[in-house]
Structure formats: structure tokens, C-alpha cells
Amino acid sequence: MSVVARLIEARAARRQKPLIAFNAATLRLGGKTIIENLDLQVRPGEFLCIVGASGCGKTTALRLAAGLYRPTSGAVTFEGEEITEPRREVAIVFQDYGKALLPWRTAAGNISLALEASRVPARERGARIEALLRKVGLPGHADKYPTEMSGGMQQRLQIARCLAQEPTTLLMDEPFGALDAMTRQGLQDEVLSLTQASETTVIFVTHDLDEAIYLGDRVIGLLPHPGRIGIELDVDLPRPRDQLATREHPEFLRLRRQLFDFIKATEH
Amino acid sequence: MKRTAILWRLASALVAAGFIAAWQLVANLKLVSPVFLPGPDRAWAALVRGFSSGDLAGKLIGTLEHMAYGWFAASIAGIALGALIGSSRMMRAYVAPSLEFLRPLPVSAIIPVAIAMLGLTQGMALFVIAFGAIWPIMLATIHGFAAVEPRLYEVARSLQMSRTAIIAKIALPSALPDILAGMRLSLTVALILSVVCEILAGLDGLGHWVLLSARAFRSADLFAGVILLGATGYLTSIAMSLVEQRLLAWQTAAR
Ligand SMILES: Nc1ncnc2c1ncn2[C@@H]1O[C@H](COP(=O)(O)OP(=O)(O)OP(=O)(O)O)[C@@H](O)[C@H]1O
Ligand SMILES: [Mg+2]
């Protein structure tokens, strides 16, 4: 077997091994079982979307993957190793961007926070910050305070700070939930182009079924009380995705229908 | 916005001028005996005289020193203790009852204790001033640290920031508006207690000056001292708000 073939095989094997795995993870909080026996494997480079009715445990599942919660029983692993604390290669984009940014630091200062934590030397930070701001479409806003920015800009800034961590994995909790439809679609495409190129693994929680199918390689639907997997759909839609063509694709409509019926059934 | 601000300034200057005019009128008509109430003219003359030939400047510096040392000591200890207590829920639960017991104690109640332990010394004055001034700062710091947005701590955790970095970059800046407000309150407390200590312990300062003037029925000198105390309180408070504006520029940037 040639070296190249072996390399390709090794890479394929690595891709098969899950990056993040929930192994019969159960979480009880305040005497209530929030997540029960969750089994889920996330492949490296995968874009996984999680949907489900309000209160079914989407955020909680994401916090388990982030290491912000530890399971009561079972395990959640990252590269086969149990997650005990948040780690820098796993970045979290919170829904409430207003609370996740430092109001006393400018846009540049907020990004700098992540660079400082990664011990990037001060003289390299300026160029890195500039590049990151450009990457998320905020060039020229370095000196603005978060309160001087619109919601969409603040969420872009939070994403830039997360990218400054140079994460291999992005955990996003309804990141566009509070934004208007136009801003939302723009940001969807930006997140896709930012993560697809760098093969970043993404777990993306959303209420919006269309958004889940549009973005994901796979969509998981959670059932409530306690949270567990109710449906799993592979999304076989061509990439790069396109706001018009993808959403009109027969497969998109079929998946949308299936997911819609599932959610409908859970809501009573 | 700018215009109304100027109008307000003008109005408050007019009120002050009216007040001084009324004072002069009362003094000229001798509604109160000149032994007790000098007019603003005599008070001003005494002020000028005190600075040019007396040691009023020395007394002012004495009071400023007492105030500054006590206030700095209170600030450092108050912020450190407040941060310690405010950043831990356990500490808050354990310490809060004791604080609630100590806080309403009038500082005057501990002055005799301080005098008994430390004598009529500068050390006693420093202790009393710092003890009185620490409360607003410490309580404000506790509140500021307890009110840090929990989401920011999660951001810090996901960035794997060190404990000191979390305090310096997240908790302190977040609590800063509260801390500065507490420090401003303490400024007044420190001034009042400086005067009280100077009167009680005969320490060099405006308190002592006022006391001696009163004993000698030199009402103009007494008023000069009081005016100087008022000015000290006013000017230090203005200086403090300038510092606040500077440090909290991000709060006004939004509006
Ligand atoms: N700290 C906690 N203690 C007790 N119960 C909790 C806690 N956090 C969440 N829960 C409960 O767990 C359930 C799942 O919460 P979670 O926030 O994960 O839901 P979600 O799917 O993200 O909902 P939403 O779509 O509204 O964001 C809810 O019923 C919630 O009340
Ligand atoms: Mg949620």
C-alpha cells in the first residue's frame, strides 16, 4: 500500500472517530431529569443541527458538550477524553450576545480578550484583530463599543471573538434567534463559509427548522421531558448551499415536511 | 442639551449669589449678633488673612492629609475585602450577617474605643477615618462583584482564563461603576471624620482651627474654616466625578 493511500486511509479513520460523543449521558438538575440517556456522536468537520420544542433540553445538551455542565451519569467526551471543563478549542456562541460581550471594551478589546487568554503577544494582536473583524464583516468598527452596534453586528463580534480562540469546534445556541430575517440569512451564509473552509465542527441549536436543514449535514430533533433524541435526519443537499436554490430543492422540502411533522407531534 | 446645561449652571450660580446676598443682608441688619455671625465680607477677609499671615494653609493641608490617608486606606481595604466577599456566594452567606451588625454602628461609637486603644494620635485618626469610610466602598464593591453578569464568567471559563485574569479583566471592570460610587460617598465620610478627629484629639487641621476660633469667639475665622471645609468637600467631589467620567467613558459612549 502506498504512503498516500495509507495517509488517506488514516484520515478517513480519523474522520470516522467521533470528535464529540455523548455516551448514555444523563443530567439531573434540581431533582429533575433534563437529559436522559443521550447517545450522540459528532464527526469531525460535521455541521450538526439540534432542533426541538422550547424547554426540551437543547441548551442543556450544548452546555454538556461545552463542559459547562457535567453529566450526572454516562459521559461526554472530546476526542475520546472525558470533558471536565471548557477548553479553548471549543468556542461557544451564546444567543444573548448583549450579555456575552464586555460592555467596557471596544470591539477590538473584546476580540483581544480571547487573544490575551491564548497568550498571543501584544504586538501581534492588532493585525489579528483587524483580520478577524474583516472576516466577520466588521472592518472599520474596531473602536466601537458593543452598545454602539446593532444586534447583528454584536453577534458578528461575538463570532469573531470565538474565531480568535482558533477553535476546532463551534457550539452555537440559537445564535441568530434575536435577529431579523435578512440579517439572519446573511449570517447563515457567513457561518457556513467560515466553518466549511476550515473544516470546523459545529453543533448548532435552533428553533428554526428551515435554518437547521439549510445549514446542517445532519439534524437531530429532541423530545422533551426528559430530553432525548426523537428523530435524526441526514441532509443530503449539495454544498455550497444557496439561499434560493437549496430552499427550493425537493429534498429540502421533503426534510422540512418530515421535521415539521415531528415537531408538531411533540407539541402536546 | 448643551444649552440647558448652561442654563442650569447659570441658575445654580444665581441661587448661590442670592444666598450670599441674603447672608450679607442678615449680617448688616444685625439680625444675629456679629459676635456669632460675621457677614460674607468679614468671613472672606478672615480667609484671606488666614492664608497670608496665619497658618490656615497648614491647617487645610493637615485636614487634606487626614482625609486622603484615611480614604486611601479605606479604598484599598474596602475594595479588597469587598472583592473577596462579593465574588463568593459562600462568603456572602457567612459574612453578610456580621456586616449587617457592624454597618449601622455609628462611627462615633467606636471613637472612644479607638482613643482607648490608640490614644489621641494620628494613628487613632487614621483608624477612625478608615473605619468610617470603608463601609460605603466595601458594600458597593460586594454588590458590584455579586452583580457581574454570569454569562461573562462562562465566557471566561471557555477561554480558560486564570483566576487573576478573571478578576482583573471581568469582575473589577464590571464592578467599577459601583466601586467608584462607593468611593465618592466615602469621600464625604472621610472629610467629616477628619474634622471630628481633629476636634477630639487636637490634631493639626481645619477641625482644630474651627474649634479654637469658636472658643475665642473669632466668628469670622470660624466661618473662614467652615467655608474652606465646604470648598474641600465640593472640589474633591468634582475631582471624583471627573475621574469617574474618564474611567466610565464606555457608559456614555452608547448615549
Ligand atoms: N439550572 C437548571 N435547574 C433546573 N432546571 C433547569 C435548569 N436549566 C434548565 N432547566 C430545565 O431544563 C429544561 C431544558 O432547558 P433548556 O434550557 O436546555 O431548554 P431549551 O431546549 O434550550 O429551551 P429553549 O428553546 O427555550 O431555549 C427546561 O425544562 C428547564 O426548565
Ligand atoms: Mg435554549
Tell me roughly what share of residues is in helical segments of chain B.
over 70%
Beta strand count of chain A: 10
The N- to C-terminal Cα distance of chain A equals 57 Å
Determine the number of helices of chain B (DSSP H or I, runs of at least 4 residues): 11
Oligomer: heterodimer
Write the layout of secondary structure elements.
The complex is a heterodimer of chains A (268) and B (255).
Chain A: H1 3-16, E1 20-29, E2 32-42, E3 47-52, H2 58-66, E4 73-78, E5 81-82, E6 90-93, H3 97-100, H4 107-117, H5 122-135, H6 151-164, E7 169-173, H7 181-197, E8 201-205, H8 209-215, E9 218-223, E10 228-234, H9 245-248, H10 250-266
Parallel strand pairs in A: 3-8, 3-9, 6-7, 7-8
Antiparallel strand pairs in A: 1-2, 1-4, 4-5, 9-10
Chain B: H1 2-28, H2 40-52, H3 56-86, H4 89-102, H5 107-118, H6 122-146, H7 150-158, H8 163-201, H9 206-215, H10 219-247, H11 249-253
Helix pairs in contact in B: 2-10, 3-6, 3-8, 3-9, 5-6, 6-8, 8-9, 8-10, 9-10
The structure holds adenosine-5'-triphosphate and magnesium ion.
